[in-house]
Amino acid sequence: MIFQLIGVNHRSAPLEIRERLAIPEARLPDAVARLAKFPGVEEALVVSTCNRTDLLARSRNGGLDLRAFLADYFQVGTAEFEPYIYEHSAGDAIRHLFRVTASLDSMVIGEPQILGQVKEAYAVARAAGAIHSHLDAVVTRAFAVAKKVRRETSIGSSAVSVASVAVELAQKIFGSLKGRTVYLVGAGKMSELAARHLIAHGAGMIYVANRTPERARQLALEFHGHAVPFEQLYDTVDRADIVITSTGAPHAIFRREHGELFLQRRRNRPMFFIDIAVPRDVDAELNKLDRLFVYDIDDLQSVASTHLADRHREADRAEAIVAAEVERFCARLQTLDVVPTIVSFQEHLETICQAEIERVRGRLGPVTPKQELALETLTRGIINKIMHSPICELKNVARQPEATAVLEAFHRMFNLPSHQNS
Length: 422
Prior knowledge:
- By secondary structure, this protein is an alpha/beta fold.
- About 55% of the residues lie in helices and about 15% in strands.
- The chain is built from 15 helices and 10 strands.
- Strands 7-6-5-8-9-10 form a 6-stranded parallel sheet.
- The radius of gyration is 32 Å and the shape is elongated.
């Protein structure tokens, strides 16, 4: 059996190319069904996300022209995507799938979403009848390897984005975020993303103050929160446990005297400022106040970078796990290749033995059940002794590059049915 893979990802191709070769979720069943019907393809899997499109196929004898499928399916000339694609075959194709599923090939190493995306692609391919035997074994093993990487390394344990670091730090300050109040000062995209992360981890009421009232109302409505007129900011912001501020003001809008007032109103309950404005919205002097915590964009990015470095160190351990699993799985697949030949060889020898027994049976005269059993035991022993050395050699050669040639020669030598990888 031969596995072939072709694709583009965030490393090999710019966004405009990935957009051209992306397959929307609604079209995925059609894409994988068409790939499965492509000449020479026995099984197929299509994985398409915002960062990649991978086509994986199994053929009997290799030689699939997956470039032609890409050109036909997307109605583009091969010259348009040729500089950006990568291709893998055999063990390299399996390694690529294992690495992708284990999130070692993701834009953010260790992110958990890709495993779910590959599982969804697998479910679609199964439903379309595009996966049924050897590729099924490859993909299900990829899932097991991804789980092993998660279990035996810390590749996904640390936050690596500004928004996720903000959540991590808030959890360290407050313990649980359940019911914590969040105040957005300024309604930019990054502060909105940080707020979404906080809500996803249990934060409660959202207040929004923005110099453009309509934007504040829109965002508050989206979060089921409250819009606050910007001029009421200092009278209301102490309601919040967590303040995310990004106003674009030319100078700090929260100074030490504000912090002292907020803590007094809050009866010294802690307050966390996430300052992602440049220039900064929060004066560094606020960080000197007990029970008031301030992190600016550099602080958040520094923590994220440290965590990302930790992930890369863990990725080295994960790569070793994947390499060992690929080697083990490929050896298993190669051994499976010789099973049809072994079965065919055994049936061939048994046919010869039975023919010879029938040929001389008339000269033997009446045979008792005990003699019949002895005759069967004798022929079985002869077959097993003849088969032992060839079978051992076939299993050994299955792991060698010349396995296909040896199997074909073996079939010709014993006049077995034509050898086909299946």
